[in-house]
Each structure stands twice: as C-alpha cells, then as structure tokens.
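Fold this sequence, please.
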Amino acid sequence: MFIFANLFHAVAYILDVALTIYMWIIIISALLSWVNPDPYNPIVRFLYSVTEPVLYPVRKRLGFSMGVDISPLIVILVIMFIKYFIVASLFDIAARMR
C-alpha cells in the first residue's frame, strides 16, 4: 500500500508546484498588462501564449461590462481552490494509506 501512498504524495506535490508556478505566471502577466509591454518581446509572447488559453474563456464569459479585466483574479481563485481542496485531499489520502 505504501507504493500507492507514495504515488499519491508525488502527484499531489507535483500538482502543487505546477499550480503555484502557473499562479505566479498569471500574476506576472496581469502586472505586465498594466504597463503595455512590447508584444514582440519573447518573454511577453511566452506569458501571453501560456496564460491566454485559460484567461480567454473566462474573459468571454464575464465580458467587459465593468471595464476592468478580473479574469486573472477568477483564475487565481480557481487555482487556490484546486490547491486547497484537491491537492490537500491527495496529501491526506497519501497520509492515510501509510
């Protein structure tokens, strides 16, 4: 049983790290959108290509009725929910299997 516990623990840890990195990428992308960066910069293009597939559907559903783009905030809240519910549950399952 300890093999499955280690598997769940490893999956939870990798998911936690990946979600944390993606959350910081979204924060950096949102901060860069305030200063109107050069769209031909490779870093800006990378950030745009990584975050836009997730932010666009949220933006599309919310619309721009308020004039402020809150889609990064919504995505960060979803990431936090996944981290505190799913990842924490995986850690608990792994701990109970040992």
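The two ends are 7 Å apart (CA to CA). Residues 2-97 form one domain.
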